[in-house]
Amino acid sequence: MRISIFQPDIPQNLGALLRVSACLNVPLDIIEPCGFAFSEKKLRRTAMDYISEADFRTFIDYQAFKDQQKKERPNSRVILLTTKSSKNYLDFKFRKNDRLLLGRESAGVPEYVHETVDDAVTIEMPGKGRSLNVVVSCVMVLSEAMRQTRDL
């Protein structure tokens, strides 16, 4: 299982994802460009000292990310977390080598990314909100994916 984030634009959220990566031992892919200067100093407040413990890689763009996926793990799937899917993540069958792709906090992912992912899931919103914070969404879906694949 991997977490991947497409062009993050809020450094505090990326810092929190680095912390999730370190604490849960789940690698993180950061697909640039970021909406801020990517630096340890920018992330220190939310990532704290976990940044040195996180297993993360950066990619110059989405194509570099996809190229690496095909080369390193051609059978892995990219599963997009999006409000534009009708598939509830609780009903989805995750696999151990899936990559959970998160979009930009401000705009999600562009159409060309939607067209290239292997599948997409959503968190149903029975309340009045449109969406949850990207880190909260990630941890909810990651927890379910890890629960499903823990014994495999």
Question: Short description, anyone?
Answer:
The protein is 35% helix and 16% strand.
Task: Please give a structural write-up.
The protein has 152 residues and is of the alpha/beta class. It has one domain (2-149): Alpha/beta knot (3-Layer(aba) Sandwich), CATH 3.40.1280. 35% of the residues lie in helices and 16% in strands. The protein has helices at residues 11-24, 40-47, 62-72, 111-114, 134-149; strands at residues 2-6, 28-31, 56-59, 78-81, 99-102, 119-121. The chain has a six-stranded parallel sheet. Helix 1 crosses helix 2 and helix 1 (11-24) packs parallel to helix 5 (134-149).
Count of helix runs: 5
Quick check: average pLDDT? 91
The helix/strand order is: EHEHEHEEHEH
Q: How many β strands by DSSP?
A: 6
Structural class: alpha/beta
Primary descriptors:
single chain, about 150 residues, alpha/beta, about 35% helix
Question: What is the strand and helix layout of this fold?
Answer:
Layout: E1 2-6, H1 11-24, E2 28-31, H2 40-47, E3 56-59, H3 62-72, E4 78-81, E5 99-102, H4 111-114, E6 119-121, H5 134-149
Parallel strand pairs: 1-2, 1-5, 2-3, 4-5, 4-6
